[in-house]
């Protein structure tokens, strides 16, 4: 039995919603695999992936099954009790990573909030209240709560909300000397994205992350990796830290973890985790059975040699064609990223026009993203068929051809 819904249209957004977003003119209503249909029935190829969230595309049978089976069992019990899907997911995450303990939340911002609070609590307990300073990277992005937006290195997001949270310093990304100059015995944590997502799809240098690890050890600070965007297979490894061979003390995950169902996770060691003792931190919905069941299914599908090696192959397929387009139309100067988190840097003549590329692409029925005004970003399904990659890039080429002719 399907429910009859009142008709809605894009104009309703402007009438009813807080105006903090400027969504596209069309409304996606159905998705299957790497394709999406809007209200008029138009089909688009999805290279945006809900901003690196739909890790297995739309309506993946394994996820639909996990969700519906769990929906018929139990939805929510709160953290006064534990639940089976949360325990299964936590065990799988521990078995697959450096971690020994898991905290489940509902979003990347919440996972980071927990990570940063834990880092401060650990330092306070072990070293004393003076050790609370956090060092993060310029142009980083860690979420929109007051704490996470202040740790993020983009003042445009943190200005105008009253006094800033104290004890947070920003240094240029990939600059080890700058980090060395900033770190001290008052530093409780160094927070880095192994690949800066919103900052322009910038992978860290291996030597930089190795140097950061050594500096943290030297100054008894924790190394925190924000893998909200780079994690869960996105890089071609289960987590990007594995690609670099640099192990953090705390790691945050979300986005691809739930394949489209809201969930976040903070991973850490037993030694550090014990400082979040009963009552020190919490969440009403975190570890919800529905989200945990879906995330468990996502992990089962992604964490296989076939899928992970497929992601690396698909990266090469994207990159080769994007470089070709860049040269042919003089639009991209560089294509960078790991796995299926890819950024195409716009040439000087196109600086600031990422949004124009995005709009032109949509007119040719392909959805892409931007990462700042100068980078076109691709974060498709990790199992996107090669035929969809090729067709989507054909559509993108048509969009670029039209743009360059104008």
TrEMBL record:
Pyridoxal 5'-phosphate binds at residues 108-109, 141, 226-229, 284. InterPro entries: Ac/SucOrn_transaminase_bac, AcOrn/SuccOrn_fam, Aminotrans_3, Aminotrans_3_PPA_site, Class-III_PLP-dep_AT, PyrdxlP-dep_Trfase, PyrdxlP-dep_Trfase_major, PyrdxlP-dep_Trfase_small. GO terms for molecular function: identical protein binding; N2-acetyl-L-ornithine:2-oxoglutarate 5-aminotransferase activity; pyridoxal phosphate binding. It catalyses: N(2)-acetyl-L-ornithine + 2-oxoglutarate = N-acetyl-L-glutamate 5-semialdehyde + L-glutamate. GO terms for cellular component: cytoplasm. Pfam families: Aminotran_3 (PF00202). GO terms for biological process: L-arginine biosynthetic process. The keyword Transferase applies. It is found in: Cytoplasm. The modification N6-(pyridoxal phosphate)lysine is found at residue 255. It comes from the Bacteria. N(2)-acetyl-L-ornithine binds at residues 144, 283. Keywords: Amino-acid biosynthesis, Aminotransferase, Arginine biosynthesis, Cytoplasm, Pyridoxal phosphate, Transferase. Its cofactor is pyridoxal 5'-phosphate. Binds 1 pyridoxal phosphate per subunit. Pathway: Amino-acid biosynthesis; L-arginine biosynthesis; N(2)-acetyl-L-ornithine from L-glutamate: step 4/4. Its EC number is 2.6.1.11. Belongs to the class-III pyridoxal-phosphate-dependent aminotransferase family. ArgD subfamily. May also have succinyldiaminopimelate aminotransferase activity, thus carrying out the corresponding step in lysine biosynthesis. NCBIfam families: arg_catab_astC, argD, PRK01278.1, PRK05093.1, PRK12381.1. Homodimer. This is Acetylornithine aminotransferase.
